[in-house]
Specification:
Strand content: 25-35%
Largest sheet: 12 strands, parallel
Structural class: mainly beta
Distance between the termini: 73 Å
Oligomer: single chain
């Protein structure tokens, strides 16, 4: 067993058990998949000795306690999945040393503190930390992450503006940040590459106008900015109303002016419009 390089025992009906100490002896492991297998208790500090790991997947368990600082020793790691557990505390010092990390998902836990430990992870492709208790601002460095395509931070306590260039580099897929206290303007370049499918920014404190750039976002399917303090004229004519693949336009509870224009007839897949409690006009 000492030469084992991959161990996949997830999605199994084991009895509830702590993290097996025997696994920590498998020093050659590069992939450990133990999601959804009734793990409970803490992630042991010895996980940091499995320095060959490139994938560590422990989601959908009953893991508690903090993320051990020793996880920062896993320099080869490019996927870390811890979502849907009972993990508490702050992101550990040293997590920012995982320079090869591309996919990090610790959603649906009880994590708190700020996100500053992640500001050096420039190779991130997908960052999902929704449904936690994070606070503070989204690090400005995230706006310079040239590979980031998915960002999901909804249902936290984040404040301040989004980074200036967020989503403008790679073929961005979605931003999902509802249910925070984010403020400032909606950044204009999150569909710069023409690939963004969802802009989900409802229930925050965003202000200013909706950038005209999104009227040309032909890939956009879901546009949700309701319950903010947005103003100005909603993009018309030939704006978001008429995007060919848009399915949801949700702008209610703002201070937006303008008309629902005739180009809406081009939106063949549009199934939901929520636009009440604004200053819209027209027929």
């Amino acid at each position: 067993m000492s030469n084992l390089v991959q161990l996949s025992v997830g999605d199994s009906l084991f009895d509830p058990t702590p993290f097996p100490e025997e696994v920590l002896k498998l020093k050659k492991l590069n992939w450990l998949y133990m999601s959804n297998c009734s793990l409970q208790g803490k992630i042991p500090a010895g996980i940091g000795d499995l320095t060959e790991l490139i994938r560590l997947e422990l989601s959908d368990n009953n893991i508690s306690g903090k993320i051990p600082a020793e996880i920062g020793k896993l320099q080869k790691l490019w996927m870390l999945e811890l979502y849907n557990n009972e993990i508490i505390g702050k992101l550990p010092s040293g997590l920012g040393n995982l320079s090869n990390l591309k996919f990090f998902d610790a959603s649906m836990n009880y994590l708190e503190g700020n996100l500053s430990e992640l500001r050096t992870l420039t190779n991130l492709v997908s960052l999902q930390l929704f449904s936690n208790q994070f606070s503070g601002e989204v690090p400005a460095e995230f706006g310079e992450f040239k590979k980031l395509v998915n960002l999901s931070l909804h249902t936290n306590q984040l404040t301040g503006p989004l980074p200036q260039k967020l989503g403008s580099w790679a073929k961005f897929d979605f931003i999902d940040v509802p249910d925070n206290f984010l403020s400032g303007p909606i950044r204009p370049d999150m569909c710069k590459q023409g690939t963004t499918k969802a802009l989900l920014m409802l229930q925050n404190r965003f202000t200013g106008e909706i950038p005209a750039t999104y009227a040309n976002c032909s890939s956009l399917q879901r546009f949700r900015v309701s319950n903010n303090s947005l103003s100005g004229t909603f993009l018309s004519p030939s704006g978001i109303w008429g995007l060919l693949v848009v399915e949801i336009i949700d702008i209610e509870l703002n201070q937006i002016e303008g008309e629902i224009t005739s180009d809406i007839k081009n939106a063949k897949t549009l199934g939901t419009i929520t636009a009440g409690h604004n200053k819209l006009t027209g027929e």
